[in-house]
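Fold this sequence, please.
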Amino acid sequence: MRGRTLQTPSDSARGEMFPASQVPRAIAVLAVAMVAFLALPAARGWRVAAAIGGWSDFAAYFLPKSQYVAERYADGGLPLWNPWEFCGIPLLASLQVQAFYPPVVLFYSLWSGVTAQMALFFLHLALAALGTLLFMRSLGFGFWPSVMASLWVTQPLWLVRVYDQPNLLASISWTPWMFLLVRRCLLAPSLRRATGVAAVAALQFLAGYPPAMLASIYLVLLGMPFWIAEGKRRTGHVAALSKGALALIVAGCVSVLLVAAQLLPTAELASLTERQHDAARTHALIESGHTPPALFAAGTPATTIGAVVVDFWRTFGPALIAFAVLALLVHRRRYPVWSLFATVVLSGLLPYGAYVNLPLYSHMRWAFEWRRIAPMGVFMLAACGIDALLVRGWARPRAAAACALAIVVVSLEWNWRLIDPRWLQPTWLKPMAVPEWVRRCDTPAFRAHWPAGQPRAALFVARIRSIGGYEASLLPARTAQLIETLGIGNGIPHGRWAESVAANRTIAARMGLRCVPPAAAALQAYLIQESQPRVRLARWARFAGSAEEALQLLRGQPETVVLEVAPEPLPGDTCSGPPGTATVVSDQPEEIRITTDAPCPAYLVLADTNLPGWSATLDGSEVPILTADFVFRAVRVPAGRHEVVFRYAPWTVPAGIATSLMGLVVAVGIALLPRRYDPLARVPGGTARAPTSR
């Protein structure tokens, strides 16, 4: 192999990438190899478009919300609030919508729907493969073994699993880049390299899957002792390593500044949820053995060591495992090889309980990301085994390409056996569409919830308000409690949803729930005749001394309003007459204008979620918002005709954007700093470190 001269002891010791002149060749070879191996699943019957059914996460969550985010940007606004699910929830604060992730914003602006998603899918496969190739070359391994390592992204079972979770795929695709840049920052620190680490960390966070980023951090921390030992062996002292640690601190600070626009709203929402409680219940359910097998089929780690080992063997097969073992035997004195082995152990050989007991993982409901990262570590370690064949002369350099590609073919064929046959028959999935039952209800001025059998995002696409939605674990605690009381859960209610709603008809009526669609088209919609309008005037209020008492009082007459803070008595208590009328004049996600006309003072009740960030004005003057009916909004309005405006403008958004802009200025300033002024790149004697020979 012509490139064999690249893998010399000096190259390995330096840990540098191959010359820039070889980058085009590497990209070309990698592109051809990826196209060839991605054609294997297509030849076997799996199609990328197979995952667009209404039940899928992609169709029910990511596609409609990503498209909506792009539409809002095109209109010159930010998507702050989602009024079409769960009586209204923050949208920008939900990290999974990827509102600040540049590729999503760009691709959904250029294209729409499945086209944009497919473009993002292949972009992130290419990013993950290229990052892996560069990382392996920086470790000093041969060209073709590095190409083989990068082809982990073509593993069939992995492809099927990540297509339906675009934010998970996007986040994982930056993991090898984190390995590459953090290691280089440790071994040859500089402020520019610290900025590179900060940029990649920011992109991984904005990609929208925090558990995957947390997993990457764990893997980086696991690899750092090996990389530090490698640097100490190279330099013989730790002065450069202390500068490397300082560079990583700088990188962490800059990355936090860069993502502040997303971080602050997300942190505020997280403080209002009971995510940790929800996650604890899920962990207990999985470890008790009562979890549906579908969860493990989707990639959740098994609960015992024995089951994990069996699953590891079934997934990767004898070829990859044998070459991984060979790498440990032949390269047993090379620290990078043992860092890759540690990556394999942490990502693929631990039971479920080990992951959920990691710090911060108590907030994570699943552990999908570890099984999604494991192929990267296994392929990289197996590639080290192929490199060992070449180093020891057991195979000729000219056979490197054939050997690497043959191992990939064998491993992919082995992994193919785990594919669910349903993925090969995409015709059973139907495109997402608005259900027919919508016409049976008071369209569009009604609130609805759907039981099993309906596309979970159909109402979002049709812009129809619903008390149900997709991701209940991101709900504020009170909203989640109210939804759970009705028994309708996370878009898929329990089997006795009709009985649960019937037993809580008054609560449902206060929420404005009128239509519960049927599970079968032949059935009639379940209507709640006494359902209150979303906007109403209430003349009388009942006051609760606590949240628990307020929840109990919701079962009282729905014509009243339940308040938790007793205001001063309304003037004109002796006034008699009807409550009056409330009319929505303008209904936008972040601004609602309502006119009231009442003969007596009353409470204007808006059955939309009340959260920090909402403010109200009465005829232009700011008035306090009262928490009504446990989770909703109310303001006091005097008799006569008035205009009330509700606006959503959380302080976290402008503060976050300003901080991110400051971080961007800092990052650009550091990147443009001349090398001679870089204190981290200076060597003893006061001169800047000369660029390392490539």
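Confidence is low (pLDDT under 50) at residues 1-15, 684-688, 690-694. The longest strand covers residues 640-648.
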